C-alpha cells in the first residue's frame, strides 16, 4: 500500500508537469504577465548586461535576428550562477507559440532582467524584461521568483 501511494504521488507530479504546458494560454496576456510566468518557471533570475549576441549554428539563413546571448550577471535574484551566462532563447513549451517575449536583446550593453531555466545542464533563456520598465513590476518579479510553477 505504501508503494502504491508513492507511485501515485510520482505519477500525479509528472502528469501535472506535462499538463501544465498544454494549459498555457498566452493570448491576451501582457508582456508583464508573460515575463512573470517566465520568472515562476525559471531556475535563475538576474539583472544582467548583454556582452555578446550571436545566432545558434542551426539558425535558418532567412532569420537575420540574434537568438543567443551572453549576459554579465550584475545582481542575482533567484538561483546560484556564474558571473556570465551563455544561452539561447527558447519558448516555455516545445512550440514557437509559447514564446514569452518579443523584447529580445539587439545590442551590446543593453540591460535586462533575465529569466533562465536549466534543462540537462543547458541554460535556456525564457524571457527578458527591459531595465527601463522594470520598476513598475519589481515587487512582482521578486514575488514570482520566490515561487515555482
3D structure, described in words:
- The protein is of the alpha+beta class and about 150 residues long.
- The chain has one domain (about 25-145): OB fold (Dihydrolipoamide Acetyltransferase, E2P) (Beta Barrel), CATH 2.40.50.
- Helix content is about 25%, strand content about 30%.
- It contains 3 helices and 5 strands, in the order H-H-E-E-E-E-E-H.
Give the helices and strands, then pairings:
Elements: H1 2-22, H2 31-40, E1 44-54, E2 68-78, E3 84-89, E4 111-119, E5 122-130, H3 138-145
Parallel strand pairs: 3-5
Antiparallel strand pairs: 1-2, 1-4, 2-3, 4-5
Helix pairs in contact: 2-3
Q: Which CATH architecture? A: Beta Barrel
Strand sequence of the main sheet, in spatial order? 1-2-3-5-4
Number of domains as seen in the coordinates: 1
Looking at the structure, what is the overall shape? globular
Helix content: 25-40%
Averaged pLDDT:
82
Name the structural class.
alpha+beta
Low-confidence stretches: 11-19
Largest sheet: 5 strands, mixed, barrel
* Element order: H for helix, E for strand: HHEEEEEH
Find the count of extended strands (DSSP E, 2+ residues): 5
CATH top level is: Mainly Beta
In terms of DSSP E residues, the strand content is 25-35%
Tally the helices. 3
Measured between the Cα atoms of the first and last residue, the distance is: 29 Å
- In the CATH hierarchy, the third-tier topology is known as OB fold (Dihydrolipoamide Acetyltransferase, E2P)
Q: How large, in whole angstroms, is the Cα Rg?
A: 17 Å
Key words describing this protein structure:
alpha+beta; 3 helices; OB fold (Dihydrolipoamide Acetyltransferase, E2P); 31% strand
